Amino acid sequence: MKIDAHQHFWNYDPKRHAWINDDMHVIQRHFLPESLAPILHQNGIEGCIAVQADQTFEETEFLVALAAKNDWIKAVIGWVDLKADDIESQLSFWEKYPIIKGFRHILQAEEPDFMLSTKFLKGIACLQKFGYCYEILIYPRHLKSALSLVKLFPDMRFIIDHIAKPNIKEHQMDDWKSGMQLLGQQKNVYCKISGLVTEADWKNWVPEDFSPYINTVVEAFGIDRLIYGSDWPVCLVAADYSAQLDICKMYFKDFSVLENDLFFGENAKRFYKI
Description:
By secondary structure, this protein is an alpha/beta fold.
């Protein structure tokens, strides 16, 4: 089964989705499963993972409801207030929805030490207790703290979203590369090759821009801990679905059939327990 491990859905609201600025006007509209289904079919993708984009209880409810109506949504990554005093009871509530495989907080909007605060760490410990994974959405400046976080929970499943968003547009690599190499040494950490085009020059990127970054994560994590994701519809600010998919297809074209199967689906099935 081929799986796209990173999708978003929303009923667009200018206030709730204020992060979608005017430079991103192409995605200032509704994006729902009926828009994505034919795109996945055309590209040979059989399932997807729906990931939170809004930090509310209602967002997780929304994604669970969409998954109930669309069996090709194979997992939901929701949002929960990991610093809440009642985090354990909140997770007990969500436990009745097995489609939820984990949670995410938009750490890229926080200072690096946010993820090492006492309450946040308590929340991560509760996720581990309930068997959930955690998705790490960060910029390169957060990598040192992320490494400290994952080392504290060696039995917890973590995954780095969007290869930690290096500045591909400016071809910056050094600090990001060393940080990813250290994270790759932690065997409980996976990495999504996703969100590449949005970190590049939206109008002028070429496939070769991404090779040094993909090389780095392949060397750091190995093919067994890498997972494909499109970041649709956010990717549309820089590329249509097929164009962003072709970046990965071309990179992995000389890898074995087994390695391609792992990257484009089997690793996601294992990580998300699908």
